[in-house]
């Protein structure tokens, strides 16, 4: 069965925010990766390489996830655009079904595809403007 976890975007202070959440909820980060950890990406400037690409903090059976919103060009971080619903599935078929259904008529930023960290992943806005991520990790461990 799919699980839904909140995903928060911050304007460059994700690490500070998640260290605060960790101090409140306890636990250890399941993952902390920086933009510099990803394969070479010309869109990421030297100023952003040390920022958080992905962080995950388990809270009970849920996972609070986040990232620094690294915007390019004229775009700017706008609070309110900092929440994405992240759906984690048990298998690839379920990920594909949910991705196809939710993204229909929407705006796909990244189609469902195998990623360098080993999961199948997609990002998009549905036709109503809600932001979604669908993820299937073949090596997922249960909390």
Structure description:
- With 143 residues, the chain is α+β, with helices and mostly antiparallel strands.
- The chain is built from 2 helices and 8 strands.
- Strands 2-3-4-1-5-8-7-6 form an 8-stranded mixed β-sheet, with helices on one face.
- The longest helix is centred in the first third of the chain and has 12 residues, at 14-25.
- The chain is globular and about 35 Å long.
- The model has no long low-confidence stretch (mean pLDDT 85).
List key phrases describing it:
single chain; about 140 residues; alpha+beta; eight-stranded mixed sheet; 2 helices; about 15% helix
The portion of residues forming beta strands comes to 35-45%
Provide mean pLDDT, rounded. 85
Total of DSSP H or I helical runs spanning 4+ residues:
2
H-E order: EHEEEEHEEE
Shape: globular
- What structural class is derived from the secondary structure elements? alpha+beta
Distance between the termini: 14 Å
What's the arrangement of strands in the largest beta sheet?
A: 2-3-4-1-5-8-7-6
SSE layout:
Blueprint: E1 3-10, H1 14-25, E2 31-34, E3 52-59, E4 62-68, E5 83-88, H2 92-103, E6 107-114, E7 119-125, E8 131-137
Parallel strand pairs: 1-4, 5-8
Antiparallel strand pairs: 1-5, 2-3, 3-4, 6-7, 7-8
